[in-house]
Amino acid sequence: MTETSPTPSRRRAPAMDADRRRAMIVAAALPLVVEYGASVTTAKIAKAAGIGEGTIFRVFPDKEALLKACVAEAVRPDDTVRHLEAISLDQPLTDRLTEAAEVIRGHLTRMGAVISALAATGRLEPPAPPKPDEKGRLPDREAGLAAPRAALAALFEPDQDRLRLSAERLADAFQLMVMSAGRPGAPDPLTIEELVDLFLHGAIASPEGNR
């Protein structure tokens, strides 16, 4: 009688830790929040994430907590910083700043899409107003701008010897200009090319017509 080999037991994949699972669920939820706003169901989110609906509630106490996590993820600057740091310093300053403006404007667009979708369905709570420090600064807002500003400053540094101000001050001004010119709902916003040209060459054309 021929002996049969026992069927090898299947090894289960290692369980995903709570932080990674939370990040995966939020990543799947973000485009659905943009599409459906607060009316998106956890069933749709679970299907997009390839998990059971109950898995969502192992890491989020309720749908409201998941929506708040989506807003928090949308405003985080991490991806923006990574893209800014990846811009090649070998290209001309104009091209560097054009890429940087595209990155920042893309971040603002994604952030605005998530916030607008939730606000339109009446499920976005207004954030508590930040408290200024002893110098009147808003630390929470400053913390969110600091890392992108440092990445922008690095884009100016190769040309520091021909710049009128320090790389840090120029990065601060450029960041604020891009954010202001690209705000959602702005009438006839500057194109990225116009914005960069205006920043580098000013508002007054030279008599010869050269920029």
TrEMBL record:
Coiled coil: none annotated. Gene3D superfamilies: Tetracycline Repressor, domain 2. The keyword Transcription regulation applies. Residues 41-60 bind DNA. InterPro entries: Homeodomain-like_sf, HTH-type_TetR-like_transc_reg, HTH_TetR. Residues 19-78 form the HTH tetR-type domain. Keywords: DNA-binding, Transcription, Transcription regulation. This is TetR/AcrR family transcriptional regulator. It comes from Actinoallomurus vinaceus. The lineage of its organism: Bacteria, Bacillati, Actinomycetota, Actinomycetes, Streptosporangiales.
